[in-house]
Amino acid sequence: MNQEAAKTFQEVMVRPFEDAADPFTSATENFVFGEVWSRPGLSRRNRRWVTLTSVGAADSLKPIDDHVYAALASGDMTIDEMFEFVLHFAVYNGWPKASHIEGVIHQQWARIHQERGIKVEPYSVPNNDQLGANDWTERLELGGKTFAEVNCIPAPPPVTPYIHAGILNFVFGHVWQRPGLSRRDRRFITVASVAVCDSALPMQSHVGSALESGDITREEMEELILQFSVYSGFAKGEALRVTADEALKRLGQLAISQK
Which residues contact 84 (CB under 8 A, 6 or more apart)? Predict the structure, then answer.
């Protein structure tokens, strides 16, 4: 057994590696943890965001349980950050999938406390100040500004319910402005989300803006693609890689034209 891979597995998953003589277990040991999770190009925290998004979007029951537990038990994510993740995940992957993850977070948090012999403290009630402006005109203006900052393009006019109430009012008028996660955290969750959903235009938009803004570097994007490929499949990873290559080419040409 690869001792370094086993050590990485235990650090990431917060439990010993159970060796078995089959191809899947061997690949998990030697490739997933021996080569991918141990790579230095991306922090373990950011690998967790990509992984949680991937297994959550895939409805993978045991991997969801395992990775939620590991994220919390390791201390890489706080309970408040995990609940904030659920809201952001819901925007890009849907409420039913997010509802399941929310339930798992409660279950695994209770499990961790039981294992450690600690009483679970009551959850803090979210502060209404986090909900943003109450005036709809102000909220839409802020949503348009945040949309432009995140996507690096002007916001669309609010001419349909999807754009008006959904994109400008809620997604960018509220969710992307919430303080519970950094914009960089939200980038990793969003890029993985649009890639796992095979959403071509959102993938072009969010991959391009993540790179153009500098929130994710080229090298980090390459690591994100590898991590994503492990948990969402290399075919989806290839589509994400092509999208990133096209974005980098466009940004390179833009930089040349601006000289």
Answer: 178, 180, 181
pLDDT along the chain (259 residues), means of 10: 87 89 86 95 97 97 98 97 98 98 98 95 82 89 97 96 97 95 98 96 97 97 98 98 96 67
Write down the pTM of the prediction.
Answer: 0.95
The DSSP letter of residue 162 is I
> 232, 244, 229, 243: which is closest to 39 by C-alpha?
229
What distance in Å separates the CA atoms of residue 196 and residue 238, rounded to the nearest whole number? 11
Structure tokens given for 95: 């409420």
**225 vs 239: CA distance, rounded Å:** 10
62: nearest Cα among 100, 16, 96, 32: 100
Beta carbons of 93 and 74 less than 8 angstroms apart: no
d(CA 52, CA 83) in angstroms, rounded, equals: 12
